[in-house]
Write a structure and sequence with these properties.
mainly alpha
Length: 122
Amino acid sequence: MEECVSVISEFVMKLVPLFCDKTPADKREEIRMRVLRCDNVFTMNFFDKLLKKNLEAGNIWLVGQKFSWADIFFAYTSTQFNDTHLKVDVLMDYPELQKLRKRVFDIASLKQYIENRPTTQF
């Protein structure tokens, strides 16, 4: 589980310059394209293989047989940067990962929280 969260965290760290006002616009576009062409492919391939291995074993989550915080962290992170920074869905080429994200966000208690949580800057 910790490995999953570490891989996601490393991916997120590659995006940090996109949030910095000091990063010039042309450099941001260069970073965005590198993240999409290289880092996203590596990261999503890792999760795609992991999930497919679990699906073959009869499990529907990233780690083992139970829903975990790795699933939440993955689902949440995979949606965070799509519109504002990366401008595409990082899972567009990964249908099984899209299904995982949907499974996570379809959990009744999580879905209710998301629909009713206060609006914040983050």
